[in-house]
Amino acid sequence: MKMTLAEIALFLGGTVVGADDTTINDIRSIEEAGEGDLTFIANKKYLKKLKLTKASVILVSPQTVAEGKNLIIVNDPYVALGKLLALFYPLKHGRSGVSSDACIEDGAIVSPEATIFPRAFIGKGAKIGKGTVIYPGVFIGRDTLIGENSILYANVTVYHSCVIGSRVILHSGVVIGADGFGFASPGNKNTKIPQVGFVQIDDDVEIGANTTIDRATLGRTWIQRNVKIDNLVQIAHNVVIGENSVIAAQTGISGSTKIGCGVIMGGKVGIVGHITIGDHAMIGASSGIHKNIPPGQIGGGTPFLPIKEWLKMESCKVRLPDMRIKLEQLIKQVKQLEEKINETGKYQP
Questions:
Q1: Element (H, E) at 176
Q2: Dihedral pair phi/psi, residue 307, rounded to 5°
Q3: Beta-bridge mates of residue 324
Q4: pLDDT (tens digit, 9 = 90+) per residue, 42-75?
Q5: Do the beta carbons of residue 210 and residue 228 sit within 8 Å?
Q6: In the predicted model, is pLDDT for residue 348 greater than 70?
Q7: What does 141-162 look like in DSSP terms, one character per residue?
């Protein structure tokens, strides 16, 4: 694909600084870009590479100056990059239509405008919307509903009676609707509590590879609109995750936790069950959450602390070896003083 700087700026709503008739053929990183390539700078720490790059044009934020370089000024270079990547490299699935080698039970309703690859299974009563793509090895259980223009990559499993919206992306290995971890008398009889609820995933959600979302015991486990979930995340029964939240890899969320809208979680966060995390909270990586977090709270650690307390705690950790040496010295000095007191019966410095 080829576009001029003027065409790209018009598409992005940006402003050209330099030769607007320059032609762009490809998009590359700032280190690899050469003549005919576009690159970007979204982080200030890479500004030092601006003079060194050989790219024909650089997407930059306002107030960026680079003498002798072609620039396209946009409000958010990373968002602009995403739009261009989708334009230059449109997603192609390699086939269309419903394969005769897919296993579709009687009573399933599959749009003729969907793409179903060989060896996919669709159970009785399931409904698949138009434009949805289902790759090989996908299992869709009975009475499951999938909206329009969603993508289920290879070996995704969706158990029965789940609801998946439109433009949802489920990456390989995702499991939706497995039983929640519900047992009475745990550690003793381990009596299984039937999990008779379902999972609802709203529009524009993306879920990373090998993430699991358990069905509710009763009612629903609910992932709301535009939530983005990384690889290897575990979401337990009856969890609710609010719109626009972002959850990084290896996070585990226990049952009946309510997560607000716009919440951001780093990787390896662990959350106990039956608590609430308020809207727009931000939780640092490797945090352990054992109580409610109010809206807008920023912090981290185990146990979770507000950011100022957390940073103080973290700064102490790196000084612990020196603090230990000083403490041992003080203990030794106190012991010597006590011995002198015991010998003389009174304090002698």
A1: strand 175-178
A2: -60, -40
A3: none
A4: 988 888 889 899 999 999 999 999 989 999 999 9
A5: no
A6: no
A7: -TT-EE-TT-EE-TT-EE-TT-
DSSP category for residue 46: G
- CA torsion angle for 331, 336, 337, 338 (degrees, to 10)? 90
State the fold for domain 103-309: UDP N-Acetylglucosamine Acyltransferase; domain 1 (2.160.10)
Residue 314 to residue 336: CA distance in whole angstroms: 33
Instruction: Report the Cα 308 to chain-centroid distance in Å.
Output: 25
As a CATH number, domain 3-88 is 3.40.1390.10
| Tens digit of each residue's pLDDT (9 = 90 or more) over 286-335 | 999 999 999 999 999 999 999 999 999 888 988 999 999 999 999 999 99
Q: Which candidate, 96, 91, 90, 60, places its Cα nearest to that of 78?
A: 60
List, by residue number, the catalytic residues.
237
Three-state DSSP state, 323: helix
d(CA 117, CA 140): 13
Q: What's residue 170's pLDDT?
A: 98
Q: How far is CA 206 from the centre of its chain?
A: 8
Cα diameter, the chain: 99
Whether this model's pTM surpasses 0.85: yes
Strands 139-140 and 282-283, how do they pair? unpaired
